[in-house]
Design a protein that fits this description.
Two copies of one chain form a homodimer.
Chain A: H1 3-9, H2 24-35, E1 46-50, H3 54-63, H4 68-72, E2 75-82, H5 84-92, H6 102-125, E3 129-133, H7 140-146, E4 153-162, H8 176-179, E5 180-182, H9 190-208, H10 217-225, H11 233-239
Antiparallel strand pairs in A: 1-2, 2-4, 3-4
Helix pairs in contact in A: 2-6
Chain lengths: 245, 245
């Protein structure tokens, strides 16, 4: 173990921030750390939009399920998977761009994930707190319009940054045997291990929410798969030229 | 700046390793650091498969474009986006799982990216080197069969780990003004900035490859979009129950 690993293992989403600004210099340090992450075929398919306009922040807050920290966080970024820049490279060489393959969507989405996670680690190493905002996909077409996103660019998630004004507990993760498999995929024994883990998560929620709410991991996750999950995503992505073949 | 940010900014893919093993304990530390990354709606949609069988390593090497380090690295992992476990949660609660929405595919893919990038940072903080292997998607159906992946699980990338036996230069990234935008998306001025950056990348390649190969960034990226890009991906993902609506 070392200090970096301790830092990684101490991550919690921070949703309350002090008024202290993050500052341009710190923000650029965070972004340059993000850029240093691996990028598939060197495509660098991520563009970050920093939203500072209070009216736009307010609108984004409402588009993303009324999460107040989107409006209140000292910094709010939107991480975009961007193949428009790669298309520009094609144009500069007189080549017709083909950016509608599913594989390219995966490349741009993974690039953006690696970039953002480096930003998260960099921010936390500076004593800042962060929170990913998947909720911007609730009304993704409105978000894309507000940010002026062209074809072949989509907003993957938002990202709040600020100085923490809360100190939440760590959320317990699945036991190692469930997530790390030897040789091939198997869920042998997972059912029992997960049932035990449910009790750990239930105890965590009981403590965190003052015992007012009972929730296990399996029940929470089952909820995610039991209903229509942002069914507008595929038509939206098609409209932006993604995932066509 | 601090030591963690210096570490993030010193990343290069390592493709040559000494014979020194990584060891079970270090590997579990790396995976637990990966688990500590943010996860959308707490779904924890990542499963890592550690491949140790030499014959399987050899096969994976050939499936992934004959990259020798897949066979030779002390550790080779395959990071899988996994919604089968979430389906198991549904089953445990007698709920019918719906895992075929595009949104769920994005959730699982992003979860896997964040998890893996934490693993990359953890490994590098221990003096190890890593290399992402997108090439496993060249023959993704064969990889999935070899690893016994069920419905709603797909292999996103491979990941080599070992003690570095090379010291490659840092690859210069795009200027900040191109990747960080204020308020809304715009490529104003990017063309000129990118043309200048092309010269930086060309100088990097000339040095790295002993001057034997001339390559700019825009030419390299244009190549990615100028031809069919793993056109088997969408039919494969459909066959695994992903991206159906």
């Amino acid at each position: 173990m070392n200090a970096t690993i301790d830092l990684l293992k101490s991550h919690r989403s921070i949703r309350k921030y002090t008024d202290q600004p993050v500052g341009d210099e710190a923000l650029e340090t965070i972004i340059s750390a993000g850029q240093a992450a691996a990028t598939s075929s060197f495509v660098q398919a991520t563009t970050v939009i920093r939203v500072t306009d209070p009216e736009h922040r307010k609108q984004l807050r409402h588009m993303a399920g009324d999460q107040p920290y989107i409006e209140k966080a000292p910094e709010f970024l939107v991480f975009c998977a961007d193949l428009a820049r790669a298309s520009l490279c094609c144009e500069m060489h007189g080549i017709e761009a083909q950016a509608d393959y599913t594989e390219q969507f995966i490349i741009a989405t993974v690039d953006t994930g690696l970039f953002a996670q480096n930003c998260a680690v960099a921010a936390e190493s500076m004593g800042l707190g962060i929170c990913y905002i998947g909720g911007i996909r609730n009304n993704i077409a409105d978000v894309a319009e507000l940010l002026g996103l062209p074809e072949h660019v989509y907003p993957v998630f938002g990202f709040c940054i600020g100085h923490p004004d809360q100190d939440p507990d760590l959320r317990p993760r699945l036991p190692m045997s469930v997530v790390l498999k030897e040789g091939s995929y198997s869920d042998d024994g997972d059912r029992e291990t997960i049932a035990d883990y449910d009790k750990v998560v239930e105890a965590y929620y009981a403590k965190r929410r003052g015992g007012s709410k009972a929730m296990t991991w399996t029940r929470q996750v089952a909820g995610l798969l039991s209903e229509k999950c942002r069914p507008h995503m595929l038509p939206f992505l098609h409209s932006k030229g993604f995932l066509k073949r």
